Amino acid sequence: MPRSWDEVATRLVAERGDALTRYAYLLTGRADDAADLVQDALVRTFGSPRFQLTLPRAEAYVRRAILNAVIDRSRRDGTWRRVRHLAVPPVAADVPQEHSDARIDLMRRVRALAPRQAACIVLRYYEDLTVDQIAHTLGLSAGAVKRYLSDGLRALSSSIAASDGRPADAGTTRTEDEHVS
Asked: How is the chain split into domains, by residue range?
């Protein structure tokens, strides 16, 4: 059992550092950004001595700091996202992609979601948290989390359907003749 906060920090980096980096990578999609986020979160968590901090609580603090940093960054970048297309031409990719590659590239699609939608999707399907746990983690109501999950999953479904060249709700609607009275 670690006796001091610096021992907890050392153990956390040694034992859970890779998992924290993978978590940050899922939220950012870039290894460099993920490493920076983990470093910043560790500094925020252990920058001042915190007593009575266990390894699981320290990891929870760091994960929350990573998530907060991603959401804060997206707020700061919001203005730039709205005008970026006016200043920078889009980068064209010359690499052809197969349909399966487009469907499998969920990470790119998750990163294209709104930050809270992406956070809810990652916490639900990567961290395997319940709606109530996500609500507690993000400081939202359970209804808001459900809405972010619903909207995020709908956006992911639409994105995948569009890459297949079919309408997003194909196969989910019925014609009048199909309804049974």
From this structure: 1-77, 100-170
Its CATH architecture, for the domain 100-170, is: Orthogonal Bundle (1.10)
* Rounded CA separation 62/50 (Å): 13
131 and 146 Cβ atoms separated by less than 8 Å = yes
CA distance 134 to 96: 38
Q: Where does the pLDDT of residue 105 fall: very low under 50, low under 70, confident under 90, or very high at 90 and above?
A: confident
The alpha carbon of 160 is separated from its chain's Cα centroid by a whole number of angstroms, namely 18
Q: 32-71, pLDDT tens digit by residue?
A: 999 999 999 999 888 877 777 888 988 998 999 999 998 8
Q: Are 58 and 12 in contact (CB under 8 A)?
A: yes
CA 73, CA 33: separation in Å to the nearest integer?
A: 11
The CA distance from 12 to 42, in Å, is 9
> Is the pTM value of this prediction over 0.85?
no
* Terminal-to-terminal C-alpha distance of the chain: 67
- Give the Cα separation of 8 and 56 in Å (integer): 10
With vertex at residue 40, the alpha carbon angle to CA 11 and CA 14, rounded to the nearest 5 degrees, is: 15
The 10 Å Cβ neighbour count of residue 73 is: 15
pLDDT in tens, 108-141: 888 889 989 999 999 998 888 999 999 998 999 9
